Amino acid sequence: MRVIITAGGTGGHIYPALAIINKIKKQEPDSEFLYIGTHNRMEKDIIPNYNIPFESIEIYGINRKNIFKNFKTIKCLIKSYRKCKKLIKEFDPDVVVGVGGYVTAPVIYAAHKLGYKTFIHEQNSVPGASNTFLSNCVDKIGVSLPASIDKFPKEKTVYTGNPCSEDALDKPVVEKSSLGLDPNKKLVLFVMGSLGSEKINNFLNKTMQLFNNKDYQVLYVTGKSYYDEVIKNKFPSNVKVVPYVEGLPGLMKNTDVFISRAGASTLSEIIALKVPSILIPSPYVTNNHQYKNALDLIKEDAAILLEEKQLTGDILVRKIDELLMDDNKRNKIKDNLEKLDVKDSSLKIYNILKELAGK
Length: 359
Known about the structure:
The chain is α/β, with parallel strands linked by helices. It folds into 2 domains: 2-162 and 343-356, 3-Layer(aba) Sandwich (Rossmann fold); 169-340, Rossmann fold. It has 14 helices and 13 strands. The N and C termini lie close together (8 Å).
């Protein structure tokens, strides 16, 4: 299979794209790929490291605060569209796949205009602007969360789940001892994204003192941007601070309570690995989509929600203690996560692509 794939801006788009690529490679080892991404976002560094051919286009998201800056955006969009048409004609793919981010708009639209088969995937509960725009011109749409199904044309929308869930299951277990943790003690894991969150890190710096003398251990993953500042603080002996954990889903398999934001890829891993979690959605994202993502779990009693505006150290620690002490509650959450789980998500997407490609 020859596939052009496009996704960009954040790991929440890029890693599902990589999961789809990995599944296609596994099913059809001779497949060829071209990845089209932005010239200045993280995909330009991540994708070449996987030896995937990469082409960049200069494109920017719509500026909602300063409309005059959108003249440049429109000019770049037109130029990118023309470049995408040229790249697509040269590569001549069987199918073109968009996995989110504004970079997908000119790629998928150009493919549609040229008559190529197209597929987009939406990770969030609330569709992004690009996927909303593209939904009427693509052949098939995959969604990660049930709440997204009604946001797209029903006749071509498929509930696939998030392909990152399958990748998470495949990750090897990370033993607690490999991180200097006690394998016999329960683990509370804090992760607020690969880069971290300044406001939450400032809050957690103070809150960590409340874990002193607890009979469980805490691993606090700050994100690389904030580690050097955070580590200057003094923490209780049962709190360990690290900037990053390689193969995080492998550690989640050994986690009793997980505290995180509510990004789509993170939720897919929580669901796939059946990890009891306390979700603190970021209120600073477009359309408050993390809060809406979290609601898909909350309404099924498959997670606990704490909004940032209501957050205090006492409330957070009390919620953690209650969850750790109540085995029945944790088991009920795991059972409810099982009901939300979509098995073989990336395989479902592969089968859709294979059908579109006429294979």
